[in-house]
Write a structure and sequence with these properties.
Blueprint (H helix, E strand, L loop, with lengths): L3 E5 L6 H5 L1 H6 L3 E6 L3 E3 L4 H6 L8 E3 H6 L4 E4 L2 E5 L4 E4 L4 E3 L2 E4 L3 E2 L12 E3 L4 H13 L4 E6 L3 H16 L4 E7 L9 H13 L3 E4 L3 E4 L3 E4 L4 E3 L2 E4 L4 E2 L2 H4 L10 E3 L11 E3 L4 E3 L8 H20 L14 E4 L5 E5 L2 E5 H19 L17
Parallel strand pairs: 1-2, 1-9, 2-5, 9-21, 11-18, 12-13, 12-18, 13-14, 20-22
Antiparallel strand pairs: 3-4, 6-7, 7-8, 10-19, 15-16, 16-17, 23-24, 24-25
Bound molecules: flavin-adenine dinucleotide (FAD).
Length: 382
C-alpha cells in the first residue's frame, strides 16, 4: 500500500533517511521533505565557518537535492502547526499537507529572552548560517577595533570566542573579545578540560567573566547582573538552546522546554505515526544533552523505525551511549578533546576533529554542491 512519509526539517538525524528516500519510493511510497531552506549547515563546522577554516559549500548539505534526486518532493516551507489526530501539517505558506507517517528533525534555537534578534548586532549562534553572515559583517568592519561579546560559556561559546579571535587576528586587526557566562566556562567538563580551554582563550587575550548574567542589551551596551556594563559592537548569543515550540503549540505531549516526548522507538508517546529525533525531542526513557552526537546516533534507529512503521516490521530501540567525545575547535589550529577521563589539547585534537568532520560530510554530501567547489572539508560526530 502506498503511503506518504513526510520528513519535517532536513537536520542531522534525517540525513540517512534522505539517502534512503529512493528505497521508500521503489516500494511505492511517497517521500516529501519540508525544510525552510534548501541547505542544512553542519553545526560541528559552524565555529570553523566563522573562523574561516571552511567555506559555506564545505559545511552544508544540499537537502533539496538529496531528496529530489531520489524521486522525492521538496517543499521550501516550515511546519507551524500539527493536527496529529487528522495527520495534517499546516505550513507557514498557508498550505497543508497530510501524512501517513511524519518524522520531525527540526532542531532547536536560541531563545530571545532579554535579547532582540531583530537587531543586526545581536546574533544568535543558531541557525549556523548566522555565523557565516557574522564573519562577513566583521570583515566589512575591520580594521576598526571591535568589541566582541560572547554570551554563554558552553562548548559553542568557547568555540565562538576562539574563532572570533582568529577572524580578527588573521586580518591584522585587534579586538576586545569578552566571554560572559552565568555559570562557569564548560560547567559540565572535567577541570582539566576547562583549564585547557580557558588557557587557550586567555593566552590570546580573550577576557572571561564567570558567574555574571546579561540583564539586557542596549544598542551597544550590555547590562550585567553585577551592575557593571560592557560596550560591544557585536554580541554572539550562545547561552542555551530550546526545541521548537511547534509541538507545545500543537498541544502534543511535550516536555517543559517544548521537546516532543518520544519513547525508546523515537515515536511520539501518544501518536504512533509521529516520530522525532535530534534536538527537537524529549527522550522519555532518560533526558539527553542537546548535542549533535545524539541526532547523528539516533538517525540509524530512526531510519529503521520509519521503514518498520511503513511495512509493519519490528521497531528498534535507541540506546544512548554512556558518553561521547567532545572536541572543541579553539580557532588557532588547536583543539581540546574530552572523552571520559581522557583529555588533551593541541593540534592533534583539532586534526582529529577535522578528519572526523570531513568524513561525516563526505558521507552525506555525495553528489551535492560539494563537487562544485573542489576541496571539501567535513565533520562527523561522536
Ligand atoms: C556553534 C555550535 C557548535 C556546535 N558544535 C557541536 C559539535 O561539535 N558536536 C555536537 O555534537 N554538537 C554541536 N552543537 C550542537 C548541535 O548544534 C545540535 O545538537 C544539532 O544541531 C542538533 O541537530 P538537529 O538535526 O536535531 O537540529 P538542527 O541542526 O537545529 O536542524 C534542524 C533543521 O530543521 C529545520 N527546521 C527548523 N524548524 C523547522 C520547521 N518548523 N519546519 C521545517 N523545518 C524546520 C532547520 O532549518 C534545520 O535545518 C553545536 C551547536 C552550536 C550552536
Amino acid at each position: 500500500m502506498s503511503r506518504h512519509l513526510v520528513l519535517v526539517g532536513g537536520g542531522h538525524a534525517h540525513l540517512p533517511v534522505l539517502l534512503a528516500a529512493d528505497d521508500f519510493i521503489k516500494q511505492g511510497h511517497r517521500v516529501t521533505l519540508v525544510s525552510p531552506a534548501p541547505h542544512h549547515y553542519y553545526s560541528g563546522m559552524g565555529p570553523g565557518l566563522l573562523g574561516g577554516f571552511y567555506k559555506a559549500q564545505q559545511a552544508r548539505f544540499d537537502v533539496r537535492r538529496m531528496v529530489t534526486q531520489r524521486g522525492g518532493i521538496f517543499l521550501e516551507d516550515r511546519v507551524e502547526w500539527i493536527e496529529a489526530p487528522k495527520r495534517t501539517l499546516f505550513l507557514a505558506s498557508g498550505r497543508s499537507l497530510t501524512y501517513d507517517i511524519a518524522s520531525f528533525n527540526i532542531g532547536s534555537s536560541v531563545p530571545s529572552g532579554p535579547f532582540d534578534f531583530e537587531r543586526p548586532e545581536q546574533i544568535p549562534v543558531k541557525p549556523i548560517e548566522n555565523l557565516l553572515a557574522a564573519r562577513r559583517l566583521i570583515l566589512e568592519r575591520l580594521p576598526e577595533p571591535l568589541n566582541l561579546l560572547v554570551i554563554g560559556g558552553g562548548p559553542a561559546g568557547v568555540e565562538i570566542a576562539g574563532n572570533l579571535h582568529r577572524v580578527v587576528s588573521q586580518h591584522g586587526a585587534g579586538a576586545e573579545i569578552t566571554l560572559v557566562t552565568g555559570r562557569r566556562v564548560l560547567p559540565d567538563a572535567h577541570e582539566r578540560v576547562r583549564s585547557l580551554a580557558m588557557e587557550s582563550l586567555q593566552e590570546r587575550g580573550v577576557r572571561i567573566r564567570e558567574g555574571v548574567r546579561i540583564e539586557g542589551l542596549d544598542q551597544s551596551v550590555a547590562r550585567l547582573s553585577d551592575s557593571k556594563t560592557l560596550s560591544f559592537d557585536l554580541a554572539f548569543v550562545a547561552a542555551v538552546v530550546t526545541p521548537s515550540p511547534v509541538f507545545a503549540d500543537s498541544h502534543l505531549p511535550s516536555a517543559a522546554d517544548g521537546g516532543l516526548r518520544v519513547n525508546a522507538h523515537l515515536q511520539s508517546v501518544t501518536f504512533p505515526d509521529l516520530f522525532g529525533a535530534g534536538d527537537c525531542i524529549h527522550f522519555d526513557p532518560q533526558p539527553l544533552a542537546r548535542v549533535g552526537v545524539h541526532a547523528v546516533r539516533q538517525s540509524e534507529v530512526l531510519l529503521h523505525n520509519l521503514r518498520a512503521a511503513l511495512d509493519g516490521s519490528a521497531f528498534e530501540v535507541y540506546r544512548p551511549a554512556r558518553g561521547y567525545m567532545l572536541i572543541l575547535n579553539m580557532g588557532d589550529g588547536t583543539g581540546v578533546l574530552a572523552k571520559g577521563a581522557l583529555s588533551f589539547g593541541g593540534k592533534r585534537a583539532f586534526d582529529l576533529k577535522d578528519y572526523i568532520d570531513r568524513r561525516f560530510m563526505r558521507r552525506f554530501q555525495g553528489s551535492s554542491d560539494h563537487e562544485h567547489t573542489g576541496s571539501g572539508k567535513a565533520s562527523e560526530r561522536g
